Sequence to fold (422 residues):
Amino acid sequence: MTSAANAGYPQTGRILFASLIGTAVEFYDFYIYATAASLVFGPLFFPSSSPSAQLLAAYASFGLAFVARPVGAVFFGHFGDRIGRKSTLVASLMIMGGSTMAIAFLPTYAMAGWIAPLLLCILRFGQGFGLGGEWGGAALLAVENAPPGWAARFGMFPQLGAPVGFIAANGLFLLLGLLLTPAEFQAWGWRLPFLASVFLVSLGLWVRLRLTETPAFAAALAEAPPPRVPLLELLRHHPRQTIGGTFAVVACFAIFYLATAFALGYGTTNLGYSRTIFLEVQLGAILFMAIGIVAAGYLSDRFDPRRVLMSGCVGTIGAGFLLSPMMGSGSLMIIFLFLSLALLLMGFAYGPLGAWLPSLFPARVRYTGASTAFNIGGILGGALAPILAQALAERGGLPFVGAYLGVAALISLIALAPLRRR
Fold:
């Protein structure tokens, strides 16, 4: 870092670490659910009909959190814009982490019947509710403390929490796959990643409780009282930015969950690869997502976050054409190359969002605006992605999945075109 970025260190380092570790913890929680849904939740928590139907039911429970995320975004955004970023971020982390840890103790369908999937869905809703307030607050924590000209590079730290959380989650599942037999993993081993989240949540809380409030929020309070209902002010005065920001994030969610949750389920069922082998492939590919995020952060500060996001969407459209021939090639190396390319492009469609989305809104409604747009976009781009992709693959094959990805990226590209930062 330069002297500008180092100003106020170690507070600056603590801020960046808190924005990264918080989203890493939250995305770890989210990813272990996605992985478990792809691997074991179908037969464990849902009635027996067919493996495909059970997988779709597990994906549906996975998508439930995306419905909860906008609810959490409005709830936490309300308090984040009224009482501050710090306390709101602590609360969101506790709710998400508590819901995740509780999943480790759930009975299965064989033990408790219909109560088991009901409890699973309630806790999944809690995960999404907590995450609804997490990303927006973490992004604001970073960019509202950034020195001039560093917003995108500071804003990329919450985004880097995504690959960090993914590596931690899938790395742990991979380790369990190596140490446990399939029967042991199915019986009790899948619970360990959910139980382990308590250590990560404790680390995140320890860091965040030591933070101070952001300068932008303090300045907004000094200028005028906080809005009574931030959501109403957002919808009344900033509808174009909210709608445009929502559709702008569709591409990053779609490409990520197709390259992770869907690819894992498809690779281990339809393509017949072992869980261990495919997790190794994904762990290698996710490093390219981190590379893409860092590159996009530097390019966004040099040029413009919107242009970098648009370039990521254009590349994602191209990835849609490559999905079928590469995923269906029968070569694990070619599949790895596709997943690496897809996640690299995801870095460009995701990395600049930490700086770009908050820049659309004034500080007094920024938490609500960024969180609402990001999480509603998550429903459109992420909640349906594994479900629709699995259904499309079974009915029309991988070309239909590629077309789905291309359309999602085109939607974001169109939404980005007219929007500029404040």
Observations:
- Residues 1-9 have pLDDT under 50 and may be disordered.
